[in-house]
Amino acid sequence: MALFDNWRRKALLALLVIAVFASTWGYWFxxxxxxxxxxxxxYAEHCAGCHGDKLQGTARGSNLMAESLKYGDDTASLVxxxxxxxAAHETLNLPLDIPENTVKALALFISERRQQYPTIPxxxxxxxxxxxxxxxxxxxxxxLFSELASRPYSIAPLPDGRILVSEKVRGxxxxxxxxSQGDLIDGAPTAxxxxxxxxxxxxxxxxxxxxxxxxxxxVNGWIYLSYGDRxxxxxxxPVPQSMVKVVRGRIRDGRWVDEQVIWSVHEDYYTVVxxxxxxxxxxxxxxxHLYITVxxxxxxxxxxxxxxxxxxxxxxxxxGTVPAxxxxxxxxxxxxxxxxxxxxxxxGHRTTQGLEGHPVSxxxxxxxxxxxxxxxxxxxxxxxxxxxxxxxxxxxxxSTEIDIGEDLGLDFPIEDTQLPVVDFTPAPALSNLTFHxxxxxxxxxxxxxxxxxxxxxxxxxxxxxxxxxxEQETLVTGLGRVRDIEMGADGLVxxxxxxGETGSIVRLVPTE
Length: 512
Prior knowledge:
Number of strands: 26
CATH topology of the largest domain: Neuraminidase
Distance between the termini: 85 Å
CATH superfamily of the largest domain: TolB, C-terminal domain
Mean pLDDT: 90
CATH class of the largest domain: Mainly Beta
């Protein structure tokens, strides 16, 4: 017995040492990743001597932050500029030993800094300050409406001027018309605290996600919530797991009541992938169908399997029943009990962070995060493949080409995919979107307003009747991490920001 106890103590000590080493290595790997990033190192080794370590220029080379570049300053043009510079070095017998596949990474590195994108940790430390803005069509001021107790994920303005707020790790509450935040709504789905804060980003399972109103909310009072439904011992797992779940209910006397499950999946599809990539955005079309986004909460090999929920947009009726005209619908007796193919509307998505129906055409539009580059605005069409992970305009975070799709054996021509209507490269980390409705900013009517997390900005996009982009404007920047953007009943634009450990709601108010 003593020998066994001694062996057990040694085994536990060995496991403890391994755990400490793995945790230390993991922390070092994550916190130093940006400093070790390949394009940054390549620039420092080959370019900084002439162009400056902060791209500010020297007597030997141009200022890459301020000067107009020969071929332009979008990413494709920067690739041409770099290729031209490399050719000039060859002509002067001063060749630079830069691998060909590094050129696009260098272009992204320069473009990100020309646009002054902060690092992810720095983006969380940016706090809103009020200001006046002269945009292309309207002058407005950005004013603080409410300070929130924690970071928001979604807001839903109510007809009476109050605003529903879902906070990721806290819960559901209501902000009054004077901006004061009320207590948590009793009985609403539980929001679990984060497991850890990794360079500003929450890592955890069981986050509260989207809050949305039924199109006929004024009549029926239905409120929809998506959240990371969490299980552990109850699903025979030694660690927490979660998956997007959608319910609807009503709020009566400060309580969440009349709850109904609208969309959920079999526990076989709950995963240990954190809720940061869950998606869970909700949107309605003019016929009352509800669309639900689910990100890559699993291995990429499942994204093109119609029986799984991951990397897809799903469609159900407002009561949760499933339309038989969904593109991959099969009756229950012909599909596995755990299959979600009957609710799949589109697939090949990475992390869809925004979803909204167009107020005139009724078309469903989404915003989708790419990797390093390749953020997308997509028009969502039933049954269509949106390409990820075989096709993207972005690079991996280590500056290499994305080869996940090839490694998985995916093989379909790009002509069989729906290409993004608008590509954002470098990636500003697009978040949620809305369409402008109301008379306070008449020149923006029906334009798309989309937020960004990393660029701290709101963009305005205009499309023609065929859905082609005709105008794009950075409406306002320097706000903070824009997590959600919605139209208020008063015609003002309300924006949910996350910063530090808290959040806020600001609004755009016309000054003409």
